[in-house]
Amino acid sequence: MYFSGYSFAIGYLGTTDMDLYSGPEIADAARRTVSALRKFQLTMAVGDPAKDVPPRHLEIPPVVVDMDGGYGNIFNVQRTTELYVNAGVAGAHLEDQVLPKRCGHIGGKALIGANEMVGKLRMARAVADDLGNRDFVVIARTDGLSAVDAPEPARGLDLAVERALRYLDTGIPDLVWCEFPTSDRGPVEEFSRRVHDRFPEARFAFNWSSSFKWFNDPDPISFAQLGELGYRFVFITLGAQHASGYGLNQLLVEMREAEQDGYISLQRREWADGEEIPTRSHHLFSGVPYHHLLGKAYDASRMGTEFVEELPAERVV
Q: How many CB atoms lie within 10 A of CB 5?
């Protein structure tokens, strides 16, 4: 599960991705995300015995969180990494932009020195190891391909490859992520080839970005093709934001045109035979049966499942 900094900026601040939040703020959101996933695992393990919904065992997915440029110097990286590791985060990526940074697909990006970036990577690795989590994944991102300012004379793909090699030379990053400005496959393939010439076992992260109009691409690169090139972590940074926005927009349009029937139409789609929508029963999704079960087991006051009135399953969720 990928926790995008841009999605956090939109959801938490209602604004864009230009480093307008702090490390502790996003770390706390990551902590609450991991906690919510654990709680969801417990609620699904109970099911809903009263409505014959069987229990299900779900694995908690690893959560990879955006660390942007580290929210300051190496000591900010130190603090944020400690917060991430203690939150149960599985990994994070650091990027080499100057602060305040900006989304990789917003113009005007500038880079810090490679040495400073290496120091931040070393700090993140040292903190995770010191806390006993040697499996914590460190991803080094470079925005060298489309940066307009950097200490080096090289620009474009040459700079991106040079930065990737510098970071891999340290032996620290588990993956390297080059942020590409378009969906063109040529630079993606060339970056992989040139880095693999020096580091044949190098693994890459790839942002299959929602900033690109993939539907206009006559031959969009596939996840399988990326895998063949050594890309091991593929993610769509704002996929959930776009899907949620699309669904909400559809509901509001239908309610504007059909009032209550617009929402009834949504329920029909949620409860259609063969569909499995986790949120169609918000009570099950949020763990009401789980809390009732534990309330009974621990003899908590007013936590029973009894109702004075009958609540037939075909009438209520």
A: 21
Determine the structural domain holding residue 19 and report its residue range.
2-237
Give the CATH number for residue 77: 3.20.20.60
CA distance 262 to 269: 11
Same domain, 88 and 228: yes
Q: What is the residue whose two structure tokens read 């009958």?
A: 310
Question: Percentage of residues in the chain with pLDDT exceeding 90?
Answer: 86
- Tell me the pLDDT tens digit for each residue of 274-302: 998 989 999 999 999 999 888 888 887 67
Structural domains of the chain, count:
2
Q: Which residues contact 47 (CB under 8 A, 6 or more apart)?
A: 53, 54, 55, 56, 284, 289
Does residue 23 sit within a domain? yes
In single-letter form, the type of residue at position 123 comes to M
Angle at 180 between CA 175 and CA 185, to 5 degrees: 100
